[in-house]
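Question (not urgent): is this output format expected?
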Amino acid sequence: MSRNWARLPERGSPLALWLIRSIALYLGRPAARLLLYPITLYFLIAAGDARRSSRRYLRRALGREPGWPQLFRHIHWFSATILDRVYFLTGRLDHFQIEIFGGQAILDQLHSGRGCILLGSHLGSFEALRAVGASLPDFPIKILMNVEHNRALTRLFEALNPELARAIIPIGRPETLLAVQESVSRGCLIGALGDRVAQDDKTVRCQFFGRETAFPIGPILLAALMECPVVLCFGLYRGGNRYDVHFEKLAEKIALEPRRRQEQLGVWVQRYADRLEHYVRLAPYNWFNFYDYWSEDAP
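Got this back:
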């Protein structure tokens, strides 16, 4: 898995993002969605690296050579989920039809009073989980986030929902592990994404879509250190105003033997990669890693 995503430039000026926010909130979702078509066309033409990465990925996911309609749909669905974040973060959930699968897994976890790692990916919309949280009386969640990348977008979403800023645990700081430990001890769900490798991440090699690639061990190692369960979560966009939110227990507890630690981490991360591939195949246009994911351009 390539680390190049962290070096990609931000796309969209703060002014453009605030314009989309204003249109979304004051003119409504139908008007805002009309803007997605010229925006998608612009990126399809101008963002050559993203277009090539989309083509390579869709070739694997669809099992055939994608044409311009498939590339357009892939980018358009990404734009649609970005727009819908505005509504999820401001609690305007009446726009959406959301179906929950495996909901008992998260209900059992909440009723246990124990914290857990809520492990997702850049598949669909992690913010769709907020629709689930809004329907529950107590949904304590903290989000591990790389706040250095896409700062303009991060500031926009923090302005939309100031509570979001207080729920974020920045990744890579000296106090990160302590903050996670305190949150888990209070029964919080620790949201993390496990499908991108940052610059200093430790990794293991996994099979993913028929090709070996590196996955970060951080979320699984964190669950082992915290001695807490891991619950998978994927908010799949289904077009229009429909989302499917899936929960699945990956592990009740991850125990690592000192002499077999790397081997056992590899087994658990491969299980995550296998389940991620399963859900990617369920919703192939929801995969939002528009960079050289399999390091195919590397020498």
